[in-house]
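Hallway conversation turned thread

IA: we were arguing at lunch whether anyone had actually written out protein disulfide-isomerase end to end. Turns out nobody had. So, for the record, here is the sequence (459 residues) and right after it the structure tokens. Reply here if something looks off.
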Amino acid sequence: MWVQSSALCFAAILLDVAFGKTVVPDLDDSFKESRKDDIWLVDFYAPWCGHCKKLEPIWNEVGTEMTNMGSPVKVGKMDATTYASKPFLGSYFALRQHPLIKLLKGDLAYNYRGPRTKDDIIDFAHRVSGALIRPLPSRQMFEHVRRRHRVFYVYVGGESPLKEKYIDAASELIVYSYFFAATEEVIPESVVLKEMPAVLVFKDDTYFIYDEFEDGDLESWITRERFQNYLTVDGFLLYELGDTGKLVVIAVIDEKNTSVEHTRLKSVIKEVAQDYKAHFRRDFHFGHMDGNEYINSLLMDELKVPTVVVLNTSNQQYYVLDRQIRNVHDMVRFIDNILNGTVEAQGGDSILQRLKRIMFDARTTVLSIFKSSPLMGCFLFGLPLGVISIMCYGIYSADSDGGYMEERYELTKSELETLENQELMEERLEHQGRNGLEAPLPPAEPVPPPKDAADKKKD
């Protein structure tokens, strides 16, 4: 019986693995003691978080694939709301958002900030869990790396102060890219090195050499060069591009629309990115975005599709077309005019723009609530208005009742005269008492006769 039950459990596990339904283990607070012996990739989630629920099936696929390939990285998940009060979660891991993906390697913790896709997460785990600087022993290995990675960095040369800076930069930026080291013989003959040692970035079917005089700090240069020149842009990538300090030239199109205007504008941007990368590489990224919904919310304006917009993600300024783009020459001239200041920048992060952003976000939120759920919108906004109305009515009613009470207690004319006579009499008695005079007694009121005497009189 026990053998049969074990066989059924094993079969269920195999089915889960086969269909990508491996359940990633939920970790508890004992994980603090055991994690340093292994490398862990952990999803810190909140049960109420919609983004966390969306990530869950992807996270199970990550766990399944990494288990099947025999990766040394263990995949787990932890309810951050349950263990948020624990010191090792609240302070050491510095949880500020959900879901938060971290790779834990010894005493080091690396945050994952890339797209929430299975392949990107697995690539991150392999990159960070391996060696910080990976050796390239042969040209064949170099070509293999070049085919596999879209962007990677190579240090060429022996020990030097530049290599120390390279290692320091890699320790901070390993979450974004791969870092290699090689000798001059390993580098292809097409690569021309003016001096040694050198740091190169390989991307977009070419290479660029770091120049300390022109490019400044090495870590800043690596950050600026960590993306390809032409990208498929979304909201998440735009946020990441803000770290590079470059402007982003975006063709806003409808991917489902196959008309000449949409396809032509996309091809023009791609051609500029390819043919003019030496001219614009230091200042611009290029790409296209499907749909204008995100751009409209970012610019607080309604852009017609297709169009071109140039974003400065560091200060929220943007540039819109001042002419019709017919060919590559028109696009290049428009970008040159941005560089020389001929095209006026719009938007920005001034106080007026911030107030405009607050009003825009509030209006957008209200409209989205009513659009998605009219009843919920009526409840959320009708209830406070109803409460305020009741409070105003109560205040008004209280004022009215108070006036009525004051009127109710107003004295009649005769009652006022009687009260005044009593006060005069009291003053006179008090005056006579002070002068030693015997105060006359006020006339006594007639005392009604006893009831029995009255009855006898009647008899």
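OS: looked through it. The radius of gyration is 40 Å.
IA: good, adding that to the notes. The domain at 18-115 is CATH 3.40.30.10 (Glutaredoxin).
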